[in-house]
Request: fold
Amino acid sequence: MSAPSTGGIRRTAAEMAAALADGSTTSVELTQAHLDRIAEVDGAVHAFLHVDPEGALAAAARSDERRAEGATASALDGVPIAVKDVLATEGLPTTCGSRILEGWIPPYDATVVARIKAAGLPILGKTNMDEFAMGSSTEHSAYGPTHNPWDLDRIPGGSGGGSAAAVAAFEAPLALGTDTGGSIRQPGAVTGTVGVKPTYGAVSRYGLVALANSLDQVGPVTRTVLDAALLQELVGGHDPRDSTSVDQPVGGLVEAARRGADGDMSGVRVGVITELAGDGWQPGVMARFRESLDLLVDAGAEVVEVSCPHFVHALAAYYLILPAEASSNLAKFDAMRYGLRVLPEGIDSPSAEEVMRATRDAGFGDEVKRRIILGTYALSSGYYDAYYGQAGKVRTLIARDFDAAFEDVDVLASPTAPTTAFRLGEKLDDPLAMYLNDLATIPANLAGVPGISVPSGLADEDQLPAGFQILAPALADERCYRVGAALETLLEKKWGGPILDRAPGLEGAAR
Amino acid sequence: MSTDTDVTLVPFDDVLAAYDPALGLEVHVELNTNTKMFCGCPAVFGGDPNTQVCPTCLGLPGAMPVVNGKAVESAIRIGLALNCEIAEWCRFARKNYFYPDMPKNFQTSQYDEPIAFDGWMDVSIPGDDGEVETFRVEIERAHMEEDTGKSLHVGGATGRIHGADYSLVDYNRAGIPLIEIVTKPIVGAGEKAPLVAREYVKQLRDLIVALGVSEARMDQGNLRADVNLSLAPRGSDVLGTRTETKNVNSFRSVERAVRYEMGRHAAVLNAGDSILQETRHWHEDTGITTSGREKSDAEDYRYFPEPDLVPVAPSREWVEELRATLPENPTQKRARLQAEWGYTDLEMRDVVAAGAVEPIEATVAAGTTPQAARKWWLAELARRANDAGVELTEVGVTPQQVADVQALVEAGTINDKLARQVFDGLIAGEGTAAEIVEARGLAVVSDDGALGAAVDAAIEANPDVAAKIRDGKHAAAGALIGAVMKEMRGQADAARVRELILEKLA
Reply:
């Protein structure tokens, strides 16, 4: 176990909130400690695209003033947070990891950003990501990759590798991520952190720069299940600006996390998805998964095998729906109103179309172009029914698989990702291999159900973290939190403390 | 570019001898909702450029749309007024194409699931013999969508993007709710095709105004018509290749554009060439169309359901509630009012042309006879509105005030000539008609003492006329009445003056 660092940055967010409440620390101290940590290690980790010391410290000072007057804005008032760069932040750059938005400063806040500001959480900065959230390694960021704090030569997962790495490296106790096919859960798995994709519509998407609108969901990135519950309760709830936001409360999350922490799983039925485990999965990842199941059984859970036969088509359907929606979403980046503008070479008086073409050519990376082309093709007249239309049908079948499964079990389980963190560059030239990382996480997005990834321990062969995914029926997010918290408790007992305590300290790691 | 300005049109009668025209009309109606289709920005006409905008209607990254419920209500009411079915469940779709005045580079519209479909509208067509015929236009669909921004191309000769030095875009209009109403192919109109097109757009506009859902002013672009036309060999039941003439901005132009395209299509076809399926621009000044962008199979809008919006599913109860709010069909209403008021066709046409139907209706409701109401609105107030360059309803006199003035005339308090001065006072805001009569001292003099003296003076001054009247030529009394009225500065009851003259010269 590493020695506690100065400023108490290794505490959980809940512990920081308690320290603020009992007066043993202040938000300014806490925020400054994290800014110091960022200054110390982010040169090596590169979790942040933009750090905002002034704004964060000002918000922290306001939080401290509020507390001095006997008031608090929320349970997490004064606890700092990092925000994925795909969420609009008024006055702070928002690039989505793309050149095409370099220098763009939104004139408005995403609803979740407005909510964390209103709740008094100082925003430390914006975290790195694959360009427009397209990727599973954060290597597709136009501003360079993020490095996994467990091994700086490895990927932190993606697309939200920045948020996960920031939390894993104790640069932030909390972060917001977005999950379209696993972009919160898979980075959580490979960095030893907790990531939650809430029920579709449980958290507002207003201000989230859409990758695929029907799949995207904002969620918490934290070190503990309880912290995730605290954060989702804070940012979740109906938003009239998002028509797809559910107008019923998705609550009881903190309560479920606290209840689950007693480790008692009596009466809980867990379904292991046959199609999402087995051949082709890294042995160490599977070993930790099986071991976690055994712990749940020991704690009273009943574990059964469940088949979801249509999940084998999930990846194919996903890679039609996502590029189709993305190709249309990304059309707005045309140099006419904001962001990058590139004038074509060799043309004296270029037309609007020529400027659009030159800008999009220079401003988008290869993966983005690849998906725009795929999506444009899938939506084209004559191909729509065969591709986008068929994908929609597969999506319905996958949702029915979930419905059938949840008639028998309370939650479903699988390893979050098939492998531990791979090396930077290893899969960069093989898009299909990269896409396979999200095999287990994609079905939840297609069906709109919630999912959590909890660290399941370290794989024997590489001593890198693996993740355990728990899926629940739509609007039953509290089940993810209850089972997730129980597993966390059981694993901490087994490992003698949080998995993250085994990560390198990174002190003096600056490059 | 085709050399379309050089074309020699085939004369109209020759077109009809060889071809059957088929029409298709697409009318865009800008709704008068308070806010835009998908955001809370004011949906107002004009305003400084780019002042009525927000992240949503500017298409800023991350912003999301929310459907305007009032716009849905207006769409349903339009659909019901056009005898359409109202969808139980429908979605918005994205129409993808790049253009600088489209903030998202897709237009949020409806594609294969319109809110209203399968309707019809009966259009009244004036015949040569004064008889009115009814022509039924089948409605394919009415769907909801958002307007685009407005481009201003600066420099260059044409005002179009080609040749411009630079372009400016105003996004105030972006996101204003539009309803697009599309007809099925209109066949069988023959020589009446241009007239059917004009009357359809005109009577559709009347319907929209009666519904109160749009200002529907063609000159301001609240109502925009695209005219599709094709010709098929006479007697065949196939449809020819069509052209779409964009933004024809007056009823008369709709008729002219159809006539022009009929003549042009026939010229192309007679020469053995084929019609290019394309968009064409209407030129109001020269009365011709020119080729716009080619509309070929290459244009693929890649429609798909808008994932940021949930389906619109109007309950049947709500639809029936809205059906109960529909106004009387304007064409039928006019026929009813004409019969009730006893106006001739010519009188009614003038009343309609002056926009006086509703004012007269309200004036009659306030107790005035239809003839008197027509006299004031058409003879007096229409002239004033015309001079002031305003609509009749904006002239500054209400139907109730017209009724008040007429009541004073009928009571003999004032005469028609004095009534005009009362209207002056009403427009100047000097109070009620009665107060103006009082304040301006306009009441006619019917005091026999004062009138008698004036009559005596007139008889004395005009002995020849007086002699004729004594001889029984009562028609000559007019000259004496005129003299008395002049003496009394118009404020005399002419009928009483005549009685006094005839009494004195009996």
About this structure: Chain A touches chain B at residues 87-88, 94, 96, 101, 104, 106-108, 110, 205-210, 212-214, 240-244, 324-325, 327-328, 331-334, 336-338, 351-353, 356, 376, 379-381, 384, 388 (CB under 8 Å). The two ends of chain A are 24 Å apart (CA to CA). The longest helix of chain A spans residues 385-408. Chain A has 16 helices and eleven strands.
